[in-house]
Amino acid sequence: MVPLLLGITLISFVVIRLAPGEPVEAMTAMSPKITAETRQRLREFYGLDKPLHVQYATWLKQVATLDFGRSFAPDNRPVTDKIKERIPVTISLNLIALILEFGLAIPIGIFAATHRDTLYDKGITIFVFLGFAVPTFWLALLLMYFFGVKLGWLPISGLHSLGSETLSPMAWFVDLAKHLILPVSVATFGSLAGLSRYMRSNMLEVIRQDYITTARAKGLTERAVVYRHALRNALLPVITFLGFSLPGLIGGSVIFETIFAIPGMGQLFYQGVMGRDYPLVMGILVIGAFLTLVGNLLADLGYALADPRIRHGRG
Amino acid sequence: MTARLFCCLAALVTLVSCSGGAPPAELPRRGAGSPAYGDALVVGTIGEPSNLIPLLASDSASHDVAGNVFNGLVKYDKNLELVGDLAESWQVSPDGLTITFRLRKGVKWHDGTEFTSRDVLYTYRVTIDPKTPTAYAEDFKQVKSAEAPDRYTFRVTYGKPFAPALASWGAGILPAHLLEGKDITKSPLSRHPVGTGPYRFKEWIAGQKVVLEAFPDYFEGRPYIDRFVYRIIPDTSTMYLELKAGGLDMMGLTPVQYARQTDTPEFLARFNKFRYPASAYTYLGYNLRNPLFADRRVRQAIACAINKDEIVHGVLLGLGQVAHGPFKPGTWPYNPSVRDFGYDPARAKVLLAEAGWHAIGSDGILTKDGKPFSFTIFTNQGNDQRLKTAQIIQRRLAKVGIEVKIRVLEWASLLTNFIDKRNFDALIMGWTIPQDPDIFDVWHSSKTGPKELNFIGFKNAEVDRLIEEGRSTFDQEKRRRCYWRIQEILAQEQPYTFLFVPDALPVVSARFRGIEPAPAGITHNIIRWYVPKEEQVH
């Protein structure tokens, strides 16, 4: 895992620097009050005047002590601080959306599989693909207009109302929950398609197996066949899906966060890339890479735990 | 606040730092009510501020917030005249080399310490310190010596007379007692500023909002509005919905919003709309190193072929005006008698023929020595107005037999791969118009070097001489003559075809009273805005 992580950082480090422009550029470009000397001074300040491999070595040494360095943005704050203040929002939002996604998509998939090719199945397929196909920003704006401006039921953007500091803890929580309804619904609606279709095909696959025929032949009720025998096996691949979702927990969609004015990781990363804020971009990439690797590992472990065939060697 | 003085290409219409000339389009419809303390003004900001020490920030969001927290020695008043801010008065020596500022007495920092000349001296020193990563050192490097003879006097001496010098002292003065001897780049003040301004810092919730509160001891009196809240809303459509839902009190509208979506009685009852020219212009710039544009007649022909009125109507829905030069209409450097080429496609064809472009290829495109007249207009991604402008120009030029291709590029790659390498045919871009008319950096022939801003490579001896003359005297009448002549030359030479000056279109909740539209916009007297007691909501 460590060599893999190193490889990822090396490639990211080089690729982000291949993008035209430099961090200094964002501050100085098109400003008449900048001379070559000032620009050089800024480059030295950020260590950009050194050769690339030296920069990489310096960065790696820092990261080895879990220090991601200071951001190249004008605030010059430690990258860790910038990530820390955004991670709770991102993780909670993604976690809620993930729970909803799994909680809705799995039953939907099962239902579609057991009602295969009926009107229900087709209706569900249309519904989930609609969610997949509709542009998030468009749907979000429509809902914001309808629920926020027309009906005035829900807040439009952000996480808290003005003056929410003075509310009682209960009222504060309700205020937060109201702010989350729209973003979470839009996020969930958009992600239902993948998992539910996956679940449906797994289920259909399993139902075709011999042991299901055996179970039916034994005279078990359809209920027992589907939920005890088929479902357990059909759920196995979902573990992999869950493992892949782990890095997604700290990621975020730029469009989505921008529309709802949610200060999440997606925006932070986007700003980092646009401003060529190398330490910040690298910091987020390293965390993302690490979580991806951990997610894969957990998926493997979970698989082994759930499936005796894998646990005992030969499948 | 210094950001207002500098050119930058970013957003054309920034929210708080808007400035302009004409009287308001709309007047408050409600009664005036009586001034009262209280309530909060909630404004939206697209970007989150990066650093609230103005010296270290180059984004407009940071400067908008810092502008309410810090003061400079001088400022521009509502009529865009320089007046004292932290300086009570100043004196320029007869030779134009020394400026002596007499500082206001009894001004308090937000922590209660008194403001003195030591703070000014510190701000100057930290600005020119090579270790400070600032974009604003240049003007201050012209200073030969700076001294603070006593607590309330500050004196600077320049190597040669430098007219923009005075305005450069509008930069925010920093508190020496909190910063001296410390590393400014790691100072907590960047997220918790302490200034002398009308509002003091209260809190900053990352990615969500920055809150300022009225400073009761402000030297011009306590502001009526108790709190100033900047909500960070990165999307303009969301911002507009928030405005309509009552979550924001003020924002800058787009032309479509202003002209088509806000003329309902319901909207007009709740908000006051304002309209005045923004301090910015959009232009089509030609790379003069390119043989295609070396001939002045070709540039003049393109100017004749473009219908600027059509662009103002199509792109800005009429909410702007045609530009003829680099200065803001209605200000003293602007020469109202200069008109460049009006829309005249027939004349364009004549001029092109004179320049040798008379053969017409099978595809209807002009050719010369067998080569078709075809070029690419570059512009940056994310600016819809510029893209539309390019498309309108493309169509008009096709009619006189010139083929135009359009390339839209991400900002950094446009800059690095094309502008810096001088590897472009023509550009559609914009400049903000600084208050001081010195245009040395964009038009002087010495500024054509790598990464410098005369990237089109304009070299004109007379313009050079006039620019130098204009910046080396404090006599406004002499300066005016220089800038008026420059405009005549630019209109003839057409190194840029100046396209339009858009209008700033701010809208403010109708509960705010005391707004006085002036050439400087509406925010110049923001500390005198108030909400009558019975209408306060926060």
TrEMBL record, chain B:
Signal peptide residue numbers: 1-22
Gene Ontology MF annotations = peptide transmembrane transporter activity
Gene Ontology annotations for the cellular component aspect, listed alphabetically: ATP-binding cassette (ABC) transporter complex; outer membrane-bounded periplasmic space
- What keywords are assigned to this protein? Signal, Transport
According to its UniProt entry, the protein's GO biological process terms are: peptide transport
Looking at the keywords, is Transmembrane helix present?
Answer: no
One Pfam family name is: SBP_bac_5
Solute-binding protein family domain location is: 81-438
What PROSITE patterns does UniProt report for this protein, alphabetically?
Answer: PROKAR_LIPOPROTEIN, SBP_BACTERIAL_5
Is Acetylation among the key words of this record?
Answer: no
As for family, the record states:
Belongs to the bacterial solute-binding protein 5 family.
- Write down what this protein is called: Peptide-binding protein
